[in-house]
Amino acid sequence: MLQQILEFSTNHPFLVVAFLALSGLILFTEFRNLSQKFITLGPSAAISIINKSNTMLLDVREVSEIKAGMLNDAIHIPLSGIGKRLAELDKYKDDSVLVYCRSGSRSGSVCRTLSGRGFEKVYNLAGGIMAWEDAHLPVSTKRKK
Q1: CA 44 from centre of chain
Q2: Closest CA to 89 of 51, 59, 64, 46
Q3: Residue 32: is its pLDDT beyond 80?
Q4: Residue 111 — pLDDT band, cuts 50, 70, 90?
Q5: Contact (Cβ atoms closer than 8 angstroms) between residue 16 and residue 9
Q6: What is the mean pLDDT of residues 70-83?
């Protein structure tokens, strides 16, 4: 059996490398998902969280992106300035925190940061504000600092 594996590996090195690379990628992705301490949810589930608990909404888009609107009562801290303003968020450690950006990618990195800082109820809005708007949910043009 071992002889056959070695022979196959010698005859098909590209297949073996591709298999190992894909296996590594799958393991990395699964490990990352298992170690993730926040929950990613869609707009309808986000509404449920907002309605059921004291939820702080955190918009991490850049200033130029929020002109079209943001979620009602959201606090805006751009991703580029989040490191300097993390201490401001500590008062929300016991609350639910829903983080969003334009598409859900940048907010995921902020969710990881908050989780690492001891926040236990952290949620990432899947698809960001684009998914929120696609679901025909309201946005506000009033900005909360």
Answers
A1: 16
A2: 59
A3: no
A4: very high
A5: yes
A6: 94
One-character DSSP codes across 43-99:
HHHHHHHHHHS-EEEEE-S-GGGSTT-B-TTPEE--GGGHHHHHHHHGGGTTSEEEE
Query: Which tokens hold the place of 63?
Result: 């200033």
**Cβ distance 122 to 37 under 8 Å?**
yes
Give the amino acid at 105: S
Strand order in the sheet with 122-125: 39-41, 122-125, 96-100, 55-59, 75-76
* Cα separation of the two ends of the chain: 66
Secondary structure (DSSP) of 114-130 = HHHTT--SEEEETTHHH
pLDDT at residue 45 is higher than 90:
yes
Q: Does the global pTM surpass 0.85?
A: no
Predicted confidence at residue 96, as pLDDT, reads 95
